[in-house]
Design goal:
Layout: H1 2-14, E1 19-25, H2 29-37, E2 41-52, E3 55-65
Antiparallel strand pairs: 1-3, 2-3
Amino acid sequence: ATTLYAQLFERLAKLGYHQAFAGIALPNISSIAMHKSIGFADIGVFKAVGRKFDAWHDVAWLQRTL
């Protein structure tokens, strides 16, 4: 995943984008850890907005400057 993200970030920057965002249904400790390891930072949590497996979940939002 980190290799794919590196390629994506490079392409987005060349297209003129400045920020990348990730929305992650919670709980998902491993995904949060992976995103933070490649430079994403927490920017907030939307409560009970993601529907998954017949249940409502909070969604964490993270941001990374390209």
